[in-house]
């Protein structure tokens, strides 16, 4: 410890300027890591209401029974659990769902929760029994619900006010009670909870009468109930610890956010390593001398890694405030829009864990940044290090292995995504395929950029020797730093270009789906396009819709979900072969036979579902139902023609009656046919005026909402790419400034023999321009390639094929951002280049 303090800590303190720059570099990376994780955590928090948050007051050992058909646990199964699980102290069924609620003319997300007063065993006591017996609900339309008093006060709600839930007819519910024990539900959807008096009332509001969403089994002290629970629920549900229920699109986003976290750590490494490389080079002779007089190489190696850890921890802690502020901005700017319509309430929480995460991420960045210089110092030995006085004298060359490994990663990502496109690989494989492709881009860029720059410098030297020769000398000295900066900039730029491209391609293609497939109809739903919630159009609302349709053809789609999250499989029920079903789903062959099969009780499979089930036309497949597994004959394979709100590509298509009987499906969309698109638009207002909170789409409205719907899920990744680029701009600035400081004596000598300040400034500008040209060219190619990979995975990620294309707007924006950042990074060095006292520097040297 004494030697570490005398050698390593003393070196960090003595070279405090570079240490500070290294700390700042790590802090920039940690800022990105924390901000991304904050957005990721807050997006997931509302969905914890289905498990972890709901059971926060229960003792350990709670078993959550989750039905295989999402939200459809038969009440008969709950009764059997109570009767046959001897070690259970209580079996608590709950009916729950996230839903927006219109209150006082504004929409807010709430967690609608219904159950008996046994819920107090899960969330804590709130005097449920007394309220149920002694307190009459306030009069009002429909069934009475209660919310926390603090939420009612926040939004000016009064007892008796109507609460409108989209999809339910007017007068379905009102505020009957409030309760003061806000702390019992504060962690459940940020306290935005609607309590229904019973499971039956909640089930009627959510369209699932006869079913519970989940059940919780509380074991007696010392009892083991798992075996009995598994026996009772075999075939219809699974048991385990409380789990969230996150929609598939947010599971996809979670994986993408993990990629941004890795990018943040990489930012910290690449920015800080620039400074560390120069600092270690200046200390090579000293470290070599220490090794020559007897210090063990392994102790020096560990000590240098300790330096990296110290820099990393300090940088991590320094990144906490900026990371939290950036995370808050991302939550407010993007989190709100991503959760809009889902019923989730989102805000930013600061927890002590963020400090630990920042310190850990910073430590990793610092250690990894130090590994390269430390390994080289130990490998070359003390004698070689002692002879390298004065910094980096040898020309750096990038070895061949980054090109080989990077090319293999790129080829592998294409192969993985081509297989993933058909659904035969798990969802995580698609995200990992994109990650592998991006890593390949980084490695190939690190090899190609210096070689391309060397060729360009040769041309510049012929044309302008006064600029080309000093630029070439600088480049040979700082080749590694140039390669790392180019790789970081290309990573951010290609990510931004690909995300922006997919955002525009998806918005354009999905926005035109209705006009292409259902031009003369109105589509009616209880939610916006790709809102992530299980909405329904209740029977009472459907009667209002058919009345407003005034005899025109009306058709419905019914929806249920097998599984959840990344394993979601959607069951869609339609009237086989009618105008609406033919527009939504297109059989791959023998359409008449396909639709007849569905009328006869067979099932149709999307290409994704068929691949995962290993089935084709005429095969028999086993599918879970509300009453257990059943076998069905496959009528054929089909391609979805319009995006579904769940954004799931794994779809089973059945007749309306079969969807309702075997999967307890709810009506989620209605289509009304009109003679022309103009007639449809004319009658749109009649359905909006029904007061049921419906979304009614003609062609223009669909185009607008589909564009915003797909954009809100992709825009955060575009911005994340530009954040990485901005951090890379700091890395470039770091390189330019450190180069000026490192070469102060050399610059003074050149000035003494006739080089002007203007020529030195021209060298810096040429260096910046060269880096910008290399990165812009490589990022354009990489962005187009990543867009191609992303489009391959779109049938699985979004439930619809987004055709690949190269969009000039995304390319121009990305390239412009590259040059703006690089040239901005050169401004200070260009100004600083004039501030050189030649005589004083030469005398002091």
TrEMBL record:
Compartmental location: Cell membrane
Coiled coil regions in record: none
Start and end residues of each ABC3 transporter permease C-terminal domain: 263-381, 719-837
Pfam families per record: FtsX
Major place of residence: membrane
Entry's transmembrane regions: 20-39, 261-280, 300-320, 354-377, 398-417, 429-449, 478-497, 719-741, 762-790, 810-831
Gene Ontology MF: a single term: transmembrane transporter activity
Membrane recorded as keyword: yes
GO CC terms: plasma membrane
Keywords: Cell membrane, Membrane, Transmembrane, Transmembrane helix
Membrane topology: Multi-pass membrane protein
Alphabetized InterPro entries for the sequence: ABC3_permease_C (IPR003838), Macrolide_Exporter_MacB (IPR050250)
PANTHER family, sorted: ABC3 TRANSPORTER PERMEASE PROTEIN DOMAIN-CONTAINING PROTEIN, MEMBRANE COMPONENT OF TRANSPORTER-RELATED
UniProt protein name: ABC transporter permease
Species this protein is from: Mycolicibacterium tusciae
